[in-house]
Amino acid sequence: MRLAHSACGAAERYSTVHVAYQVDNMPHIPEQTYTPPAAMPDYLIRHATLRQLQVFEAIVRLGSFTRAAEELFLTQPTVSMQIKKLSDSMGLPLFEHVGRSVRPTEAGLELYESCRRIFETLANLEMKMADFKGIKRGRLRLSVVTTAEYFAPELLGAFSREYSGIDVALKVSNRDRVFDRFNANEDDLYIMGQAALDLPDIVAYPFAPNPLVLMAPRNHALAGEKKIKLERIAEEPLIMREPGSGIRDATLGIFGAAGLRPNVRMELGSNEAIKHAVVGGLGLSVLSLHTLTLEGPDGPVAILDVEGFPIMRQWFLVHPKGKELSLVAQAFLEFALEFEPQMRQRMEEMWPTMRKVMKSTKKAGRYKKSKGRSSA
After folding, report:
1. For residue 26, what pLDDT is reported?
2. pLDDT of 22 above 60
3. Predicted local distance difference test score (pLDDT) of residue 364
4. Which CATH superfamily is domain 137-207+314-363 in?
5. Environment class of residue 350 by beta-carbon count within 10 Å: exposed (0-12), middle (13-18) or buried (19+)?
6. One fold for both 42-117 and 137-207+314-363?
7. DSSP structure string for 59-126
8. Which of 347, 332, 343 is closest to 156 using CA atoms?
9. Domain 209-313: which CATH class?
10. What is the reported pLDDT for 175?
11. What is the CATH number of domain 42-117?
């Protein structure tokens, strides 16, 4: 009996040690993130597919069955069939037809928000799995205001050379449209001008100077003059950007602060169109120095030396406050902040006056670099 009892005790001790060993070596899973099997969405797992969710997300985002089919390289009947199956699985209509367009129902909007969270989680998972393999993969969605198109492709090109496995998508729009995309959280990051600080619930990282200069045709009578009075500029015809442009607001602001009213001859919605109009002698214009990236300051457009100019602005990398950046977006953010000195140096080489302006604005405290500003 003693032998049996001893064997039983040994078995108990062995069992205890064995269980403790298993527990000690299991990864710790926080209770709030663990979903027990009984709480799994068993019905949706069996009846809905990721492909159906992808098709649905594309239709809502693009506002069209046809455009979604084109983006996903599917036929329109296939898209319609996938949505019918998904709608049957949900037991609710996901879209309603209004005239010739479609828009999501209340249930569809709820599903859309869930789709975005699911795909963001899967994208991060894919990137983490790629990291385990030693491969940097993923997708970066960047939305920028119009003037940023002069440097954003170069910045993305440098980033892509370092992270060759990452696909990049660049959307260029005017300021109001970028605001709309920001509010809808359609992209990973946004590049905006000073107006970004007016957005609620943002985190903004200043990362590059954006000097606004007054341009004239090379053969203009004021080209080459020093310290031109703003009153003299107010007498000249001025070509303005369209309403909704940050450059337009800055231009009107500097004239208004001096109690002057600019002589606006025309409004154009394109920086390139404005430069051609300036060269054609239709008037002067205020544009970002970045718009002269290709031709430089010695091209057909001259930079005038006007009191109060350049208007020193900054570019900001922006994302919504509380947004969890993907691994790719975080990598791009860090890369862009490190790339900024190269952008500034190139601008100083293109326009030597820039170096002097930067020194004076730093002394005045008008140009500051920081890790990021949060707006509530």
Report:
1. 46
2. no
3. 44
4. Periplasmic binding protein-like II (3.40.190.10)
5. middle
6. no
7. HHHHT-HHHHHHHHT--HHHHHHHHHHHHHHHTS--EEEETTEEEE-HHHHHHHHHHHHHHHHHHHHH
8. 332
9. alpha beta
10. 83
11. 1.10.10.10
Could you state, in order of their start, the residue ranges of all structural domains in the chain?
42-117, 137-207+314-363, 209-313
- DSSP assignment of 10-40 equals HHHHHHHHHHHHHHHHSPP--GGG---GGGS
What is the Cβ-side half-sphere exposure of residue 41, based on CA atoms within 13 angstroms? Answer: 7
Strands annotated E in the chain: 95-98, 101-104, 138-145, 166-173, 189-192, 202-217, 237-241, 263-268, 284-288, 301-303, 311-320, 373-375
Give whichever of 1-5, 11-15, 214-218 has the largest mean pLDDT: 214-218
In total, the chain counts a number of residues equal to 376
3-state SS, residue 295: coil
Structure-token pair, residue 117: 């969270």
| Residue 96, both tokens | 């309603």
Higher pLDDT, 289 or 352: 289
- For residue 197, the one-letter residue type is L
Residue range 86-100: mean pLDDT, rounded: 89
What's the pTM value of the predicted model, to 2 decimals?
Answer: 0.63
Q: Any idea which residue has 């009947």 for tokens?
A: 77
CB count in 10 Å sphere of residue 103:
13
User: Over the stretch 343-355, which tens digit does the pLDDT of each residue have?
Assistant: 888 777 777 776 6
Exposure pattern of 149-181 as b/e (b: 16+ CB <10 Å)?
A: bbbbeebbeebeeebeebebebebebbeebbee
